[in-house]
Design goal:
The protein is an alpha/beta fold. It contains 36 helices and 23 strands. It holds the Pfam family 5_3_exonuc.
């Protein structure tokens, strides 16, 4: 850890967690018969905390005894608390022993409660410029939440913030003490004011502002029992406030330097975990096992505390804590009997995790058939379960018996045996590109796998833009192993055979290796999430988004097939008319779709300037070449561009969508790619629904062909100017922040600021220029690019850009800072911690380096927008379900979400979606979502 790194102290409320774990888990015993359910829960939590939550400092805080200074203030404080259960008493000492075994400081102080010590350490850390995370769900600690101090529920692994506090108390954290003083606490014997509950207390605080103001104003209240109690029990309320207020001036028995996170002593930890029989935690911590370890066959949270794996007749299991790159890749087992499969499933349950992969007869998970399933439980320990191979059975020459490898289990039996494991919450299922496998498995009749990890997304959360996230590439980069290529088992070209026709020995070697590699990647890459501070991004956004996108892909969106066919015919007729005009301008007929013939027309025959030949010798005629010529005033290149745009719309949408629709439902099902872009943005393909032009007439007609089902409407929800809002936020531009806060026209405000023109009565052209600058700046636009966009000389465009930066110097500062960050680190980060790698930032070629710099400038803004909409997408399904709405999320197109909803629920859904999307992130400027609804996408947009 750098000496200058800010402190992040994680404080575990040890005493609070002991009781919660004891009541949450069933009875468990260690090998010597000692009760250990609370100890196991605590140990499991601490192991997960060390693995998943990146902090620089860590301590567990305990209560030293039942008598504290509060008993001197009020002798009845906690006087009626019952003694702890008999089977919990021996676990208090074991929890402290667990803390010591992990090498984590355990802190307690006579005369003080653990909550006071937590308050004191939180104060010291924040005063030192650091932050503190309190691992607890205790309501008494919620008064500590403020900037720099947060809470996390250790059981649910969810943060507790302002929203959760307000839901519980009806007030913000700074008013929690006053609410608690009014309502009291029967468990701790805090008296409070009789007859006042949480709702009344929060209403009084909202009206009067504080406890003192309430008590001072009680006499003037309307006569009531509540008024009388406030007057009669005023002193009790003040006493209660003293009892519930946590003392940030409490002693800190250990200095902060003593709480720095350190690796545990492996021998000490291993011995303790073995003695307790916590075998699954032993494996998960990567601590070497020994024959002395004794498993405990009892239920527990994931990964589970279970008995040792059943012995397998195939080969000896490889320990799951073996280094991923040490165990040999194979040989692997072909599973052809129910008994063998059950042995593998038992091993997976014993390990608490397994890697899975599916083999299919196609690449579309909504249409492909399941050919086989592979399973890995440890590095080098994997199998393949064939289900639909079509190879002819071979006869053994010795006795004429059928080759056992040709025997396959019925798919229904395999899924019936596999199903409980897939649904088992105590076994983690690991996939590479989980969405594909989940769609395949659930379509085949398997239950929804949960919980799930995805190695593709684990890598993407850390290395987006640095390299590809495919399994083969990740394996070569992080395991030093080149997996068997698909072409090596199926052949290529005309000789390629379907995977279902590959003989089982070769199929097993290929498929089981995929699961083996996936497991090794998980072991290698998942611990790095914490190191790279990417864990929250992965767990809060990327992983939960898998299920959301899978549901969207299953649902699809309806199209009007007849309308698309009419569009195709209309586009064809218009293209024919355009071709006639193009031929006239060219002076002769030619194939408009031929780049070679077009180049000859433009540069050989017409002699237009600026032509460049490619390596093939033909003239280059891509869109940038044609656009340059069109900007120079040449008519023909512009007509070609318009023809190409129409041709693309016709082939990509008007024609292709009809063939891509499900014949039974007339719905198309796009596939959302989660790990392609360097900024976290989703992309879609087959069909790509994110490239339909928004502002053209033809694009609107294409969108009109996307329709709602009977009795339904489509509802669009679109973030307004989200990247500009993020720019105002991250660059801290007061004028832009003020404009957004006031709801002003941001482009008119920019024009007024830059050009000194009043907003009232502003010329539309001036506003258009400001708009071009606003959006252009986000993408690092040059004077040449802005000039071409506005149709003005580059010199004039440069004067506009200079005036913009003169008015908003903070934006230039931000751009320079981001470029420097990219050069130093190789990546930039979004406001939410996503790393966006910029590989070309060190290019020697000036043009390529400038392009990378523009990428670096835009990545935090585009990536931040992607993070925000993903946050909303993850939260929406639960919000819709809680509101009993039938709306379904169909599409995500950059900053827009598209829903299908019953017409009578349209307004309710729109309001809910707007609220969820606008509260998805807290910025220094408001997020604004615009909604619309209609029978088709164009009308909704």
């Amino acid at each position: 850890m750098s000496d200058n790194a800010p402190i992040h102290l994680i404080l575990v409320d040890g005493s609070g967690f002991i009781f919660r774990a004891y009541h949450a888990l069933p009875p468990m015993t260690a090998p010597d018969g000692t009760p250990v359910n609370a100890v196991f829960g605590f140990t499991n939590m601490l192991a997960r905390l060390l693995r998943d939550h990146a902090g620089t400092h860590l301590a567990v805080i305990f209560d030293a005894g039942r008598k504290t200074f509060r008993n001197e203030i009020y002798d009845q404080y906690k006087a009626h608390r019952p003694e702890p259960p008999e089977d919990l008493r021996p676990q208090f000492g074991l929890v402290r022993a667990a803390t010591a075994a992990f090498g984590v400081p355990g802190i307690e102080e006579p005369g003080w409660e653990a909550d006071d010590l937590i308050a004191a350490y939180a104060r010291h850390v924040t005063e030192a410029g650091g932050r503190c995370t309190v691992v607890s769900s205790d309501k008494d600690l919620m008064q500590l939440i403020r900037p720099g101090v947060e809470m996390m529920d250790p059981i649910r692994q969810k943060p507790i913030g302002l929203k959760e506090v307000e839901a519980k108390f009806g007030v913000t954290p700074d008013k929690v003490i006053d609410v608690q003083a009014l309502i009291g606490d029967s468990v701790d014997n805090v008296p409070g004011v009789p007859g006042i509950g949480p709702k009344t207390a929060s209403a009084l605080i909202a009206e009067y502002g504080s406890l003192d103001a309430i008590l001072a104003g009680a006499a003037a209240m309307k006569p009531s029992r509540r008024r009388d109690n406030l007057i009669e029990y005023a002193d009790k309320a003040r006493l209660s406030r003293d009892l519930v207020t946590l003392r940030a001036d409490a002693p800190c028995p250990l200095p902060l330097d003593a709480l720095i996170c350190r690796e545990p002593d492996e021998a000490l930890l291993g011995e303790w975990l073995q003695r307790m029989g916590f075998r699954s935690i032993l494996h998960r911590m990567g601590v070497k096992d020994s024959a002395a370890a004794v498993g405990v066959a009892i239920p527990a949270p994931a990964p589970s505390l279970v008995s040792s794996p059943a012995s397998s007749s195939a080969s000896s299991p490889v320990s799951a804590d073996a280094a991923p790159d040490q165990a040999p890749y194979g040989p692997y087992e072909t599973v052809t009997s129910a008994e063998a499969l059950e042995r593998w499933l038992a091993e997976a349950r014993a390990a608490g995790f397994c890697a899975l992969d599916t083999e299919t007869d196609g690449l579309d998970p909504l249409r492909a058939g399941l050919v086989g399933i592979s399973l890995a439980v440890a590095p080098g320990r994997a199998c393949y379960i064939p289900l639909a191979h079509q190879a002819e059975p071979q006869l053994l020459p010795e006795d004429g018996a059928q080759d056992p490898a040709a025997v396959q289990l019925p798919a229904g039996l395999v899924l019936a045996l596999l199903g409980p494991l897939l649904a088992d919450p105590s076994v983690l299922k690991i996939f590479q590109n989980a969405k594909f496998d989940l769609l395949v498995l659930t379509r085949a009749g398997a239950p929804q796998p949960a919980p799930v990890d995805d190695t593709m997304l684990i890598a993407y959360a850390q290395f987006a833009g640095k390299h590809g996230q495919g399994m083969d590439e990740l394996s070569r980069l992080y395991l030093g192993h080149a997996p068997i290529p698909y072409d090596a088992v199926t052949g290529t070209g005309r000789n390629r055979i379907p995977f279902a026709r590959v003989d089982l020995a070769r199929a097993t070697a290929y498929a089981a290796e995929d699961a083996d590699v996936t497991l090794r990647l998980w072991l290698a890459l998942r611990p790095q999430l914490r190191i790279h501070r990417s864990l929250a991004l992965y767990e809060a956004l990327e992983r939960p988004l898998v299920a959301v996108l899978a549901d969207m892909e299953r649902t699809g969106i309806a199209i009007d097939v007849a309308e698309l066919r009419r569009l195709s015919a209309d586009f064809a007729a218009r293209m024919a008319e355009m071709e006639t005009e193009i031929h006239r301008l060219a002076g002769r007929p030619f194939n408009v779709g031929s780049p070679k013939q077009l180049g000859e027309i433009l540069f050989d025959e017409m002699g237009l300037p600026g032509g460049k030949r490619m390596k093939s010798g033909a003239w280059g005629t891509d869109s940038s070449v044609l656009q340059d010529l069109s900007d120079q005033g040449h008519d023909l290149p512009g007509r070609i561009l318009a023809w190409r745009q129409l041709a693309k719309l016709k082939s990509t949408y008007a024609d292709a969508l009809v063939g891509q629709a499900d014949p039974g439902t007339a719905r198309v099902h796009t596939s959302f790619q989660m790990a392609i872009t360097s900024t976290g943005r989703l992309s879609s393909n087959e069909p790509n629904l994110q490239n339909i032009p928004i502002r053209t007439e033809e694009g609107g007609r294409i969108r009109r062909a996307f329709v709602a089902g009977p009795g339904q409407v489509l509802l669009s929800a679109d973030y307004s100017q989200i990247e500009l809002r993020l720019l105002a936020h991250v660059a801290n531009i007061p004028a832009l922040r003020e404009a957004f806060a006031l709801g002003q026209d941001i482009h008119a405000r920019t024009a007024s600021e830059v050009f000194g023109i009043p907003i009232e009565g502003m010329d539309p052209l001036t506003r258009r220029r400001a708009k071009a600058i606003n959006f252009g700046i986000i993408y690092g636009i040059s004077a040449f690019g802005l000039g071409r966009q506005l149709g003005i000389p580059p010199g004039e465009a440069r004067s506009y850009i200079d005036a913009y930066f003169a008015r908003y110097p903070g934006i230039r500062d931000y751009m320079e800072r981001i470029k420097d960050e990219a050069r130093r680190q190789g990546y930039v980060t979004t406001p939410f911690g996503r790393r966006c790698w910029v590989p070309g930032i060190a290019e020697k070629n000036a043009a390529r380096r400038a392009y990378a710099e523009r990428q670096a400038i835009n990545a935090p803004l585009q990536g931040g927008a992607a993070d925000i909409i993903k946050r909303a997408m993850v939260r929406l399904p639960q919000a819709l379900a809680a509101a009993s709405l039938d709306g379904r999320l169909l599409l995500q197109v950059h900053d827009e979400l598209l829903f299908e909803v019953r017409a009578d629920q349209q307004e309710t859904l729109g309001a809910l979606v707007k609220q969820v999307m606008e509260s998805a992130a807290s910025l220094t400027v408001p997020l604004v979502v615009e909604t619309g609804a209609g029978a088709n996408w164009a009308d909704a947009h």
